[in-house]
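User: Here's a protein and a ligand (2'-deoxycytidine-5'-monophosphate). What would the complex look like?
Assistant: Let me lay out the input and then the predicted complex.
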Amino acid sequence: MKKIIIAIDGFSSCGKSTMAKSLARNIGYLYFDSGAMYRAVALYCMQNGLINNKIINTETLRSKMKDIHITFEADPETKNSLTFLNGVNVEHEIRTLEVSQVVSQVAALDFVRSEMIAQQREMGEKKGIVMDGRDIGTTVFPDAEMKIFVTASAQVRAQRRYDELTARGDSADFQEILENVLQRDHIDQTREVSPLKQAEDALLLDNSNLTREEQMEWLIEKFNNITK
Ligand code: DC
C-alpha cells in the first residue's frame, strides 16, 4: 500500500492531537504534534526570561533559535509521543494554561515558523506520517495526499480543555479557558504568517457532535479511499 502524508489542521482544542494519534496508531503511521513544537519554544522563552508581561523579547529569541532543539520520543510504556526540549522531557509543562496563554504570540513570529517548518518537512521526508497543526495542509505539506480540517464550537472546545486539565489534577476556570480559546482562534486566524485556514482540497470535519468512534470510522474510510 502506498505511504502518504496526512495533514490535520484546525482550531485549538478540537481534539486534533488525540484524533491524529489514534489514527496513526490504527494505520501504523508515525505521529507528529507540530503544536507541541511551538509550545516548547514558548516554554523556552518562559524559562529563559524572554517573556515579560506577555511581551516577547524577539531579538534575543531570534539569536537563541539555534540553541532550541525539539525532538519527539515514544513513551516506553504507553507508546505515546513525548516532547523533549534540549533533551529534557517537557510533555507536561507545555500543556499548562501559562504556556497556552503565550504560545499563539510565539507561533506568530516568522523566524520561529520558518525554523519549525523546516524541521517538520524533514520529519515527513519518508512519508507514512500524520501531522497535526494549523498550517500543515496549507504551508508545510501543500501536496499532502490527505488533508483534514477539523472544527467544533468554541463552547465544546473549552469544555474539552477544561476536562483535560481537571482530569490531570490541574486547577481550571471554564470562563478563563473559553476566553483563551477565542483569543487563540483570533490570533491564529489573523496572523500574517501562515494563518489558520482550510486548504481548498481539505475535507471538513465538524466533530462537535461526533463520538471518537464515529470520527475514527469517518477517517479510516477516507484513508482507505485515498490509498486503495
Ligand atoms: O495545537 P496546540 O494548541 O498545541 O497549538 C499550540 C499553538 O501553536 C496554537 O496557538 C497555534 C500554534 N500552532 C501553529 O501556529 N502552527 C502549527 N502548525 C501548530 C500550532
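Summary: Residues 4 and 128 are 5 Å apart (CA to CA).
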